[in-house]
Amino acid sequence: MRLSPVSRNLLRLAVGITLAFIYIPLFIILLYAMNPAQTLAWPPDSLTLEWFPKAIQDQAARDALLNSLKVGVVATAFALILGTLASLAVARHKFFGRESITFLVLIPIALPGIVTGIALNATFTQVLGLKLTLFTVIVAHATFCIVIVFNNAAARLRRMSTSLEDASADLGATPWTTFRRVTLPNMRSALVAGGLLAFALSFDEIVVTNFTIGVGEKTLPIYIFETLFRPNQPGKVYAVAVIAIILSMIPVYLATRLTRGEAATARGAGAAATTTGATD
């Protein structure tokens, strides 16, 4: 599509406004993390990096970070297994209620976090009689991480032709062998991207975590929220927040790279098919 110079400039302006809308608040957090003052004040009189070593050496912050990593990794593993199986069921088999099941699997991501948190808290404590621990946080996070994995995997399966799987079955391969050697390799990048996004979502979650975590345990978002308004060393808390932002960006960046690589491969395959068709 050809755009006039005016249209191009308007689009560039829109992109600039969008980026400013998203990133100016994050830039202010960075400035607060570099503010040497012992109380919150704007604008900072000077800038320093002294809070970052203190944030890294803070044992409570490190324990909270470790808890967040444990929860994120295990919840993502649960989501990868259950989300992949559910996507295979709805994308590769026709049965009564298939569309309804797809809708029901997707619902948790649209529910307000406080509703999900209350529902899970009541289920764990009142119905099942469980003590709230990191395990209950993992189960709670898995409920919405499954949606991310399911969405990615189902979208990939819908775009994949079944001809390779049919050929594998015709050659005598068992369903497990066909899945392991044909289906799974073709889903790999979608599953990795979905897993990375699910981990990032779990890593930042605070509302559901508040309702499902045990007394005395903290994840990194809860640590930041509880210590943010303490009267001393606010810069250290903001430094922890900056580190959390950087850690959250890593899986999202990797997922974006994987998706971009997949798109490039698809374009290459499409061009090759077009060339082959033209030659034939």
Description:
By secondary structure, this protein is mainly alpha-helical. 78% of the residues lie in helices and 0% in strands. The two termini are 29 Å apart. Residues 269-280 have low confidence and may be disordered.
The structural class is mainly alpha
Query: How would you describe the shape?
Result: globular
Q: Please mark out the parts with pLDDT under 50 across 5 or more consecutive residues, or reply none.
A: 269-280
Percent in helix: over 70%
User: Whole-number average pLDDT?
Assistant: 84
Beta-strand percentage? under 5%
**How far from one another are the termini?**
29 Å
What is the fold's blueprint, element by element?
Layout: H1 5-33, H2 51-57, H3 59-92, H4 98-106, H5 113-127, H6 134-159, H7 163-170, H8 175-204, H9 207-212, H10 220-227, H11 234-279
Helix pairs in contact: 1-11, 2-11, 3-6, 3-8, 3-10, 6-8, 7-8, 8-11, 10-11
Summarize the structure.
The protein has 280 residues and is mainly α.
Annotation keywords:
about 280 residues; mainly alpha; 11 helices; about 80% helix; disordered C terminus
